Amino acid sequence: MSDKPWSGRFSEDTNKLVEAFTASIDIDKRLYSYDIAGSIAHAKMLSKNSIITAEESELLVHGLEEIKKEIEEGVFTFKISLEDIHMHIESRLFEKIGKTAHKLHTARSRNDQVALDVRMYLREETKNISYLLIALRKIFVDLANKYIDVILPGYTHLQRAQVILFSHYLMAYYEMFTRDYVRIKESLKRTNVMPLGSAALAGTTYPIDRKYTASLLNFPEISANSIDAVSDRDFIIEFISIASMTMVHLSRISEELILWSSSEFKFIDLPDAFATGSSIMPQKKNPDVAELVRGKSGRVFGNLMAILTIMKSLPLAYNRDMQEDKNTLFDTVDTLKGCLEVYIAMLPNIKVNKEKMFNATEKGYLNATDLADYLVCKGMPFREAHGCVGKAVSYGIDKNKELNELSFEELKAFSNLIEEDIFNILTAEEMINRRKTFGATSKQNVISSIKEAYRQIEKDF
Prior knowledge:
By secondary structure, this protein is mainly alpha-helical. The chain has helices at residues 16-22, 25-28, 32-48, 54-72, 85-97, 110-146, 166-191, 210-216, 226-231, 234-260, 288-311, 325-346, 354-360, 368-377, 382-399, 408-412, 422-425, 428-433, 443-460; strands at 151-156, 159-165, 193-194, 221-222, 268-269, 351-352. The radius of gyration is 31 Å and the shape is elongated. The two termini are 55 Å apart.
């Protein structure tokens, strides 16, 4: 018989196909440091509560520390037959210290052990991603500060709509990624709960001290229900959901960088170090980084659908389906971190074509709303003003003239309320700076939002 933890119940060796099919070591071996840290804390707790002797605990801890060193030095041997990282460490511990190794599993199960490892892993990665989001947010604020006077068209339906400051546009992404930062920081509260001590699902008869173990592992809370503790993967679902939202925002800016770097827009130039060429067309400079980030969003969305589908019909408590949670989680963490890191490196090196952006504001009747607002301020009801300006735009299209290119007499023909001061109202700078309501695009507002963002980022760090 093979030496499985459950071999006493079985009369046949596990089929080799089953061993290969059920093994997760290729995926979960990255959990080794968390598994060892959890086991060391567990061994110390067992000793403190006189479940094992102090000498046995010291032997276990020393053996576990040696195993960690072996893994980090690349001399540890992984085998499919041992299935997962927990069994690998337990097996190697037995080879090193003998039967005392078998006492380590007292008062715990692989069910609460893996739940602990994944929570410790995600806790650390959540903090790493939080810092990346802070760095990305600061880049948007730095760019907004740098380009505070740059003007460009704002778009709706991908049609030129109204004039805005480029800095105001950049601060919109600051707001998006700030929400992502807040969400992921708040999710840490629900991840940072210790499940160890729940055992298989019903808890344990041994006099363990869960609070002591939690203190050793820096968990502020312990799980309140042993069944829920081993079957809960809500924290993974929540993380991937937040990651999906962040990838939406990364994908949206990717789309704009792709469009804006095209010959049709020429609003920006991407740095050569973050673009690629064509194998056949020598002139090409492709926005591959932005395209890949846009594409990888679908990968993360798929992970969210996968974990939701895995969990949606599982009866309590643990089921082997849940082994698949790590594929979705690890891939999401790796993908999101990679996308954030490449954008943090790329964005500061993008060249902004200020003249192209401003020139784009001079065509497309972007001042139409301001003309309507002018008439409203003169006493005309807005709907009437809207219709009046619509006729002026139609006239301008026929004459191939923008509204500010029409003569005073031409404009006056649409309403006697129009006076000579209209031409000051219709300049790009005036249209921007008259929008002084909180959150609007005036320079004064944007400067204030930049200052507030810097204060918030310093606080978040």
